[in-house]
Design brief:
Layout: H1 2-25, H2 36-47, H3 84-93, E1 99-103, E2 108-111, E3 114-116, E4 121-129, E5 139-149, E6 152-158, H4 160-182
Antiparallel strand pairs: 1-2, 2-4, 3-4, 4-5, 5-6
């Protein structure tokens, strides 16, 4: 009887100590310098085909947004009511651009600068999904433009016409998807 009791206590202590190690292992970086959490985020971003620059502050969890917020669909008590179809379509429409920050809880997508036409012009897009509706007021799109002149990037201001085209494209696709999902 005492042998069984001692064995049970020993086994319990062993299991408790081993379970504590798994928590520590998920935050300790391995030989690549990345924690399990960072590697998991990379796998999730790759699966969604999201391309972030390797030096992006999002990988280090810096700034207002981070990669964790990208995958927390409604898990936070501080989340806002954001239309997930609208958010997914918006991400899909700008997938060719590098992302600077993404936060699904607040419905914000910010791209990094994207150059085209031989590097003479570049654009940056900020998208904000305001609520769950799919009206014109539910989505805000800002497009900033710069041109390269005399070895400097010169601000050209916001391109409201192109921003409106992107906004309408996102809304149209999201509405079509919603209708198709209801069939």
């Amino acid at each position: 009887m005492t042998k069984n009791l001692i064995f049970s206590i020993f086994l319990s202590l062993l299991l408790i100590s081993c379970s504590g190690n798994s928590i520590l292992e998920s935050t300790i970086p391995d030989d690549t310098g990345k924690s399990e959490k960072q590697k998991s985020m990379e796998r999730k971003l790759e699966k969604r085909d999201v391309r972030l620059p390797k030096d992006s502050p999002l990988w280090q969890g810096q700034g207002i947004f981070d990669t964790e917020g990208f995958f927390d669909f409604g898990n936070s008590g501080d989340s806002y009511a954001v239309n997930s179809i609208l958010f997914s379509v918006a991400l899909e429409k700008i997938e060719f651009m590098p992302l600077a920050s993404v936060d699904t809880n607040s419905g914000i997508i910010v791209t990094d600068w994207y150059s085209f036409d031989g590097g003479i012009t570049r654009i940056k897009i900020n998208i904000r999904i305001i609520d769950e509706e799919m009206s014109d007021e539910s989505l805000s799109v800002s497009l900033f433009k710069q041109t390269f002149e005399n070895n400097l990037w010169v601000d050209q201001g916001m391109d409201k016409e192109q921003a409106m085209k992107i906004k309408n494209s996102i809304l149209t696709s999201a509405r079509d998807l919603k209708i198709a999902s209801e069939l």
